[in-house]
Amino acid sequence: GLHPLDEWFGELFEQAAxxxxxxxxxxxxxxxxxxxxxxxxxxDVVLHGDLHHGNVLDFGERGWLAIDSKPLxxxxxxxxxxxxxNPDAAVALRPGRLERTAGVIAAExxxxxxxxxxxxxxxxxxxxxxxxxxxxxxxIAIGVGQRVxxxxxxxxxx
Length: 158
Prior knowledge:
Elements: E1 3-4, H1 5-8, H2 10-18, H3 26-39, E2 45-47, E3 56-58, E4 64-66, E5 72-74, H4 89-92, H5 97-109, H6 113-133, H7 139-152
Parallel strand pairs: 1-5
Antiparallel strand pairs: 2-5, 3-4
Protein name: Aminoglycoside/hydroxyurea antibiotic resistance kinase
Pfam families: APH_6_hur
Organism: Leifsonia aquatica ATCC 14665
């Protein structure tokens, strides 16, 4: 069956409790945003869960298809944010790119830009938590997350 997004965010909530001071308090700040967003979704839809440039492929006659979906449901804004950390650090962390991309996503999806940025803060911290809990660094997710936090004016909670 499909899993709700609040289950998907479990590792972020754990990371916020276990490592509240990491990255200038990124995890607790993002966890607070995630909890608020999860409590009041704008809609509840089936989600891809890992939508980015590497998971949308041209299958010739079958057309462009999304692969590697996750069994999730929740707020539609969640599925639009992985693009902010892709395809690599040079692109994702380019000055002004976050603001431009978030503006395009908001305009094309009809979703509120501030809500998208709040989801982006939650998503980037979740991505960083997954990476760090598996022993990897997460410079792109952390870098984008810090920029989103600055745009939103979200201060560290620690």
